[in-house]
Design goal:
heterodimer; A: about 675 residues; alpha/beta; 8-stranded mixed sheet; B: about 300 residues; MetI-like fold; about 0% strand; flat; binds iron/sulfur cluster; binds magnesium ion; nickel (chain B); MetI-like_sf (chain B); transport (chain B)
Chain lengths: ~675, ~300
């Protein structure tokens, strides 16, 4: 980009970009040990354009966004250099008074967590009203009327009533809509959206993303979209900027980026994505971890993890190389100044995984499982109803195989897992494990049996005692089950387990907080393996992890399954993980399984309208197939008061009269594939 | 919410009944014959018998309790032995004085603690913060019976600005209210500080700034209302301590309230009066707690409106 220093008139004309960021520096703390969270980031956004900022957790995406509005966490965070030009005017030089007119007026921002981003003791109408008062001079009646109008615009039904409600009365999707309405209230030129849909279910995410696209089309607002989801980028962005360890490493148009990503890190991101075609081999992983940002770098920040790295990479920091069309990359491979990179350490295709034995017999047989939670109300805590969390669920998992249980939040997935493990006593139904009825086991007998079925949770940190050493955490189950009575032999076993999950024996003496999220999840896997289980229930084990780390855990789980003949019940909402890992899929909606079958059949030829909608809502990276997203209206109903007939009928695009009256029977579609929908009759 | 309210009222009623029975039993828990204690060993047998009958001590315990409860229900609180007047009259004189003192102390507490805690939180780790917290530490550690005389010495004896004791001039209220409110203000300012600090770290504060609000608007509209929720609960609990403190403060400043009445009653072994005073103090404690809980529920829409009806 050509620099221009010939007075403000001139520079105004030159910068027809809406926003130009030059060499932005964000630091936490002072002096040597300061964390350089953002280290020389430059980019520009045109009017009406969407720039996606992509990158792993902790690479500085949010701090870049907050710095634009000068809202860094106080008092530690500060901007140490650079320029943020909004139509040529440097925001970093504005007095605070003027900056306030920019915030919410010219640049609005929405955040990842709609649940906590609204003031709980103020009605949503009044919170929107604050923007109208600050930037549009609207007060009282006029402000209220405009708030109702805005809520309607973002698709909130019954806006006249909702405007006077408090945040806790709205669902997550509605709260994010309120945040969008609030952002729109100031009619901004630029919207910064920091992971706006990460906390939402896929069908709700699809609604919100579509809303944002519509609004952008109508208002011509530009957008800086922060995300770590390549699928969301594919559906939303005009251009893509990839961030790694505080710097931009690649910038390209969407088409260029998806057809030919250049930076080795970008390429790895694609390779690490799980999907159906990669089922028979391990996923590509990025070894190692992101470097800490409290150091100064004299090499490529990615060098330790890069398969193409050669000597120069470890000695010289790569410069930003930009082509005329704005495409740029930060990597020596593309630098004419280093003409002779060695033939790139050609990456061998990962070895194929061994084939598995044919049709084993069922290890877990769950039939007609029900878990109903009573709802207590009133003075004497009378039971006034039930939450039908799990209502008549059948599940079969053979030894050494994986069943994926998919569905949106609140549909009862986790409750199924807990009821199988007898962590929750089922209201009715049977759970047979290797032929034995678990629901009848009590006390000591049950405890003995527990070693054969283990669980791994979504949040590895909160499931470990922070004051226990990793070795003790892993050993605990062995001691409780009386396995390996000899302490020395037990230690030996712990070290073996650590190696088995890809950690080092000396890690046994460290504490959980010394590990990254992915490493902690490995510790949880080791803890589960310690008691030599035959079934592991994995409850969203990778949903808190970045794709590159997710790939490591998925590889680990897949390898262990082959080695130890483990059966998995894999609870998730991530369809590509299902495609990669599962043998069979069960789709759950409001406490019931609505479709089940072999993974390739269900994912490629879904029978139930809900499965179809769910699959179509998943953002995918193949952008040009003209795929139609089936839009589901409204939110998931409450399981305490499920709709009559087919639970899905209020949202089903194909609902018929009959669907309102009776719950559909089970209809077979080919061998071992069935769904509950009247359309299949 | 309505069910909650009913439950709350019911449980309060049960507690009140318990308190009444306990206070009634108080007189029977005295290890010696209460009549001896009240009249002294030297009293004549006839006097003792008269008092015994007057107090109804010669009848079975159950009957006594029944009559006692019946009397309370009719608003008959009996006679003071020492003052030789109906207790109701005494209360009518003294309660307004104590209420006046308590309200003044509460007002002083709020006026001091809210801004101080807010200031300390907003300017955390600066001189303001450290100053405010040092002051509050001092306030917590100085007992009323020491602070009271100190203030009297300073403002009444040396400077001569304010009266030493009594309730005659309007200025007389200032020193007792200061003394009584000081430690509560100290506790509360700490509470406000930590609560505001916590709220300032919340996401909705960041989004309020992102809307273009000024710091003052963010603090008054978003931070304070949320930060005060936990403070209200603590305030409710601490008001009990304030009532206890009122007894000492009233004695130090010769304030003619319920507290000094109680002390007088104890000193003169006026048991019927002691009973009523203890009853009143306990009741006000229970009532204050109930009121703060209700206030909390009413202010917080999450409780007032119940959980999500989203969908
Ligand atoms: N208050 C703080 N004090 C010190 N360092 C911080 C603070 N907040 C963030 N950082 C550091 O700044 C860097 C960038 O953080 P940032 O939140 O921008 O990451 P991100 O890319 O948004 O990650 P995520 O995808 O997890 O949201 C990280 O290394 C982080 O550790
Ligand atoms: S500069 Fe070298 S180490 Fe860095 S990404 Fe390019 S090839 Fe890899
Ligand atoms: S049964 Fe009816 S409402 Fe239910 S999924 Fe099938 S078509 Fe839709
Ligand atoms: Mg972030």
């Amino acid at each position: 980009m050509s620099e221009c220093n010939h007075g403000s008139n001139n520079s105004r004309r030159m910068t027809d970009k809406l926003l130009t960021v030059r060499d932005l520096q964000v630091r936490f703390g002072e002096g040597e040990g300061a964390v350089r969270a953002v280290d020389g980031v430059s980019f520009a956004i045109d009017r009406g354009e969407t720039l996606a900022l992509l990158g792993e957790s902790g690479c500085g995406k949010s701090m870049t966004a907050l710095a634009l509005l000068r809202l860094l966490p106080q008092p530690v965070g500060h901007i140490a250099g650079g320029q943020v030009l909004l139509e040529g005017q440097d925001l970093l030089a504005l007095p605070e008074m003027r900056m306030r007119q920019v915030r919410g007026g010219r640049i609005a921002m929405i955040f990842q967590e709609p649940m906590t981003s609204l003031n709980p003791v103020m009605t949503v109408g009044r919170q929107i009203g604050e923007v109208l008062a600050a930037h549009k001079g609207l007060k009282g009646r006029a402000a209220r009327a405009r708030s109702v109008e805005l809520l309607g615009l973002v698709g909130i039904p019954d806006a006249g009533r909702r405007v006077d409600e408090y945040p806790h009365q709205l669902s997550g999707g509605m709260k994010q809509r309120v945040m969008i309405a609030m952002a729109l209230a100031g009619e901004p030129d630029l919207l910064i959206a920091d992971e706006p849909t990460t906390a939402l279910d896929v069908t709700i995410q699809a609604q919100v993303l579509e809303l944002m696209r519509d609004i952008q089309r109508e208002t011509g607002m530009a957008m800086l979209l922060i995300t770590h989801d390549l699928g969301v980028v594919a559906g939303m962005a005009d251009r893509v900027a990839v961030m790694y360890a505080g710097q931009l490493v690649e910038q390209a148009s969407r088409a260029d980026f998806f057809t030919e990503p250049r930076h080795p890190y970008s390429r790895k991101l694609f390779a690490a994505l799980p999907d159906m075609d990669k089922r028979d081999r391990p996923l590509t992983v990025i070894p190692g971890t992101v470097p800490t940002l409290d150091q100064s770098f004299h090499a490529c920040r990615f060098a330790d993890r890069c398969a193409s790295a050669w000597r120069t990479c470890h000695e010289v920091e790569p410069a930003w190389l930009e082509e005329a069309d704005g495409r740029g990359v930060r990597c020596h491979l593309y630098d004419p100044a280093h003409p002779n990179p060695p033939a790139a350490g050609s990456e061998a295709e990962p070895d194929r995984l061994a084939a598995r034995s044919a049709a084993p017999r069922d290890l877990l047989e769950v039939s007609r499982l029900k878990v109903h939670f009573p709802i207590h109300k009133g003075l004497f805590k009378r039971t006034v109803g039930h939450v039908y969390a799990v209502d008549d669920v059948d599940i079969h998992i053979p030894t050494g195989r994986t069943l994926a249980l998919v569905g949106e939040s609140g549909c009862g997935k986790t409750t199924v897992g807990k009821a199988i493990l007898q962590l929750l006593r089922p209201t009715a139904g049977s759970v047979r494990f290797d032929g034995d009825e678990l629901t009848r086991l009590r006390g000591e007998a049950l405890r003995r049996r527990r070693r054969e079925f283990q669980i791994i949770f979504q949040d590895p940190f909160s499931s470990m005692n922070p004051r226990m050493q990793v070795g003790d955490i892993i050993e605990e189950g062995m001691v409780a089950q009386g396995l390996v009575p000899d302490a020395g032999a037990r230690r030996q076993r712990v070290e073996e387990l650590l190696e088995q999950v890809g950690l080092r024996p000396e890690h046994a003496r460290r504490y959980p907080h010394e590990f990254s999220g992915g490493q902690r999840q490995r510790i949880c896997v080791a803890r589960a393996l310690a008691v030599e289980p035959r079934l592991i229930i994995c409850d969203e084990p990778t949903s808190a992890l970045d794709v590159s780390v997710q790939a490591q855990i998925l590889n680990l789980l897949k390898r262990l399954q082959l080695e130890l003949d483990l059966a998995y019940l894999f609870i998730t909402h991530n369809i590509s993980v299902v495609a990669y890992l599962a043998d069979r899929v069960a789709v759950m909606y409001l406490g019931r399984i609505v479709e089940e079958g072999p993974v390739d059949r269900v994912l490629t030829d879904p029978q139930h309208p809900y499965t179809r909608a769910l699959l179509s809502a998943v953002p995918r990276i193949d952008t040009d197939t003209g795929r139609e997203v089936i839009r589901l209206e409204g939110d998931i109903p409450s399981p305490s008061n499920p709709p009559t007939g087919c639970h899905f009928h209020p949202r089903c695009p194909q609902a018929m009269e009959r669907c309102r009256q009776a719950y559909p029977d089970r209809f077979e579609r080919g061998s071992e594939h069935w769904a509950r929908c009247w359309l299949l009759e | 919410m309505l069910a909650e309210l009913t439950r709350r009222l019911l449980s309060t009623a049960i507690v009140v009944l318990g308190v009444v029975v306990l206070v009634f039993l108080l007189i029977h828990l005295i290890p010696r014959d209460p009549v001896d204690v009240m009249l002294g060993e030297s009293a004549s047998a006839a006097d003792r018998e008269a008092l015994r009958q007057n107090l109804g001590l010669d009848r079975p315990l159950g009957v006594q309790l029944g009559e006692y409860l019946g009397g309370l229900a009719r608003g008959e609180l009996g006679h003071s032995l020492h003052h030789r007047r109906p207790i109701v009259e005494l209360l009518a004189e003294r309660i307004p004085a104590t209420l006046e003192l308590a309200l003044a102390a509460l007002a002083f507490t709020l006026v001091l603690a809210l801004p101080l805690g807010l200031l300390a939180a907003v300017r955390r780790n600066t001189g303001w913060d450290r100053g405010a917290m040092a002051f509050s530490l001092l306030g917590v550690s100085i007992p009323n019976f020491w602070l009271g005389p100190l203030l009297i010495l300073l403002f009444s004896v040396w400077l001569g600005w304010l009266p030493v004791s009594g309730r005659e001039s309007p200025g007389a209220l200032i020193l007792p209210a200061l003394t009584l409110g000081m430690s509560l203000a100290a506790v509360l300012s700490r509470m406000v500080r930590s609560s505001v600090l916590e709220v300032l770290g919340e996401d909705f504060i960041r989004s309020a700034y992102a809307r273009g609000l000024s710091t003052r608007q963010v603090l008054t509209r978003h931070a304070l209302p949320n930060a005060l929720l936990p403070v209200i609960t603590v305030l409710g609990l601490q008001l009990g301590t304030l009532l206890a403190g009122a007894v000492i403060t009233e004695v130090v400043f010769g304030w003619p309230g319920l507290g000094s009445l109680t002390i007088e009653a104890i000193q003169s072994r006026d048991y019927p009066l002691v009973q009523v005073c203890v009853l009143l103090i306990s009741l006000s404690y229970v009532l204050v707690n109930m009121l703060t809980d209700l206030l909390y529920a009413w202010i917080d829409p999450r409780i007032r409106l119940g959980e999500s009806d989203a969908g």
